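Bench notes, afternoon.
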Amino acid sequence: MNIQATNRLTPAETALVDAYTAKFSELPGDGAVVAARDVLFDDLKTGGLPTRRIEAWHYTDLKSLLRTVPEDRPAPVIEKAASIIAGSPVAYMLHGTADIGKVDGVSRFADSLLDGSAAAGLAEASKDDTIGRINGSFVRDGLVVEIPADAELDKPIELQAIHGAGQVHSRFPVRFGKGSKATVIERHLSVTPDAALVSSVSDIVVEDGAEATWILLQQQGAADIHLGQLRIKLGAEAKLRLFVINAGGKLVRQELRIDVEGEGTDLIVRGVNLLGGETHTDVTMVLGHNVPNTTSTEVFRNVVFDRAKGIFQGMIRVAPDAQKTDAKMACNTLLMSDDGEFSAKPELEIFADDVQCGHGATVADISDNHLYYLMARGVPRATARAMLVNAFVAEIVEELEEENLVEALETIISGWLEHHA
């Protein structure tokens, strides 16, 4: 490897180089995977961690924010968490190692690394794909999910990534077969107060006519760094409901890279960002409508407490051939602290002339009129504020409609709000 001079690297970059050098021979993979890792890590070393000069990272200067990288520690003993939905099949990632249990259609990503079939999928998604470079360089294992064509699952499959301190890098390739109908919950959970660096990439393919629901629940510890990415491709007549909930982490970057590749697709994206303490949480979405006759709606609700900082960057790109695209995006924020910040940057790039596209963003505090209404009926001020914040967020979750999912997620959200409010 052609390692740059150490004095040209930040401490975090130096730590990544040292970790890769020390662990390279232990990372699973055949010759094709080894070559793919080398390319990814060479690009990471050459470009370094991104700064605000790179437009996609303008609000999250990773070179400055990521000052140290936790050491790669031996895997601790980790207890499995209970399923969010009672009776649902659960496959686990325990500090970066897969435990698939007896879940039908789930296998270990380590096997795909060993036989080389994962090599092509490790490629970075774009020229500024720092998360893909880090994950592809270091990933050891993950969970591969195959939903058969025309299958209809009556309970969600839960993919639970539970970790302790150190470094954890996981991959989740998932395919919803043609005409299938299923729900997958991807949950990230920390079980230690010590810091961890977590990278996660989910490669999701929703084939023609499939109906998929994907719920991403991020509950990292207050000291954790979470670098997450969803890469999604949608086929013809496919329907995807994507719900993203961020409720933890010290430094969080969650990327949504979505390509609509089949006509008749219907995409719903909903996000809830619960920001407290001194977290820096960045949700960046790039949505490409690449074919005619597709629809999408994206709504994000954000609640900011304490000294938290949040960012939403949302780009909708409509290709020249993507006539009859109907795409709408909104980002609404409640600022509950004078010291909190939230930046919203919705964008449209439209190269077709027969489309309906729009976007908007709002930032506000609790409505005085709503607060007065509740207080006039005997509700204490603090309780009234908590009720209004909960309602602001619950409106998004209730769109899931499935009562058991709504109840489980509302319980998690209410617990977070009670702790921070």
